[in-house]
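Notebook entry, structure prediction.
Reason for the run: the old model in the group folder had no record of what sequence produced it. Starting over properly, with the input documented here first.
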Amino acid sequence: MSAFLPALILSTALQGVITVTYDGVPEVAQADFQRAAEIWENYLVSDTDIRVHVSWIPRGPTGFATQRLVRNAAHLPVRDAWYPSALANALSGVRDQDADDMNIFLSARTNWYFSSETPIGAEQTDFINVAIHEIAHGLGISSSAFIPWQGEPVASLDRPNDYVNFFDYTFALHAQDGTPYLYDTFIRIADGRSLMDFPNPSLELTLALANPTIHFSGAHAIAANYGYPVGVEPTNISHIPAFPRSPNPIMLSDSGQGETLHQPDAILVGMLQDLGWQISEACR
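New structure, fully documented this time:
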């Protein structure tokens, strides 16, 4: 990949500041990523900046985000859970270290639609949409659950796996020792059991992740969903499925394909509030 470009500090409206460093990202993509970051800046309230490193990769998924993680700091309300460092810093009001808070990888092979072009085609993927989506993963909408795609389908939480360890990061990965991510602590199935109620790793955990009743249980997200549980995609629980008679959520697993969604939806904002993010009054 090309050498890192200088960090770019994006404008803010007295909210959180997002600092982005690009590695090999074309200028047209940088411009649209900046627009996505500015959208998030209007939503997030934080006294510390949020540092994002974006890499343009020749192969791999359309987009992938990894959080830098911290746990059991004195100011973190949930014990024995990995917090995204961006949120942990926002809760403390000071940066824990001089390091990126998330790494985002975007595929050069994707048929991207950029905002400078004519209307999006059915076979294109909207870049701003994906950028908003991946930043949301980096802010905490991300599970540590993993089901192998080869061999026995024995699921695990926060164990080393080929997918996470495929990428090169600008920070050291956390200890993958079975501690759930903060997001995982909100996931339930219909009988009330959480992911932590199943052996880790185990086939029982696989069946729980595949359960059609699996959902995010945070109160703000439920309120945004008119009082109903917020379903997550079975086996792919960092994503939200489409809801009948409702606009598509931006956390769809294929978000951005043939459509342009450029604002975080109410359910996503509610989920972030449940995790602990303070959302600006104008965007609540």
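Summary: The longest helix spans residues 27-43.
The old model has been moved to the deprecated folder.
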